[in-house]
Amino acid sequence: MTKTALVLGAGGFIGSHIVKRLKREGMTVTAVDLKRCEFSKSPADRFVLGDLREQSLVRSVIDRRFDEVYQLAADMGGAGYIFTGENDADIMHNSAMINLNVLDACREHGVGRIFYSSSACMYPEHNQLDPDNPNCAEDSAYPANPDSEYGWEKLFSERLFLAYARNYGMTCRVARYHNIFGPEGTWTGGKEKAPAALCRKVAETPNGGTIEVWGDGLQTRSFLHVDECVEGTLRLLRSDFAGPVNIGSTEMISINALAEMIIGISGKNISVRNIAGQQGVRGRNSDNTLIRQRLGWAPSKPLRTGMAETYDWISRMQERADRVATLV
After folding, report:
1. Which of 1, 89, 198, 291 is the most exposed place for a label (fewest CB within 10 A)?
2. pTM over 0.85
3. What is the DSSP string of 77-103?
4. Catalytic residue among 81, 123, 150, 177
5. Hey, what domains does the chain have and what are their CATH numbers?
């Protein structure tokens, strides 16, 4: 019998890639989101447009047993959305409502396995003050001190999923994603993350121009290509390890160096100017000790390889947007 999967947040970046992977595996996939995929048609067998904050919608979708459920639906975005403080109430309320509704419906129908996408933003700020030596090992999460309400909500929801697993015998798996990037991700509009934002800036800037980078540019991060994110997600859900576990790259880089990498990929002669702006913690890098121990796997794709692929896609999107603007 063909296995069934439910992907929540399937109109978004990671969710849309998970749907494609599951369909390649031959699964029957139901997808749900507020919006359809922006950059390509979803191959899902059924795509439901709806608001997962509404209990009635969730119950109409989760009305039977699914073999696998991927819960990626959330109110989120890049630093310009998460760290200003202006969206904190919406971020916490919307994501918590979605998770509560989903877990109750899954419990009622005896869903097989449930994956929850947490974030490295839940790690304590005090462990990420040194850009050269951040501590993001899974056991460093407590005492808790995320630097944003987004991080606090993710921490709460991790505990929520694991509590349902303990109390109701559900099979829940929790991963902490570290800065996922790649083609078909948000690249403009204010919710894009650093790799996409920098690719867009470079793509739209003429030779000899200048791009702006928020902060002093010395803040560090690691970035994981979406294909490896999907691979790690499926491996975790189908394993006997509940998590939480990091799914991220250990190839740490400063934001200034990332900008220079993208400029090099573009072949342009562009300079970087640092300006005041939201930048989050000073340093963050995935610790992959636990995922290697428990899953026998860890991401390995070089950052430059993934960034070249991503820049090429965003550059083409920018050219298309410019053509449309010219016609208008």
Report:
1. 1
2. yes
3. --HHHHSSSTTHHHHHHHHHHHHHHHH
4. 150
5. 4-181+225-247 (3.40.50.720), 194-221+251-283+302-327 (3.90.25.10)
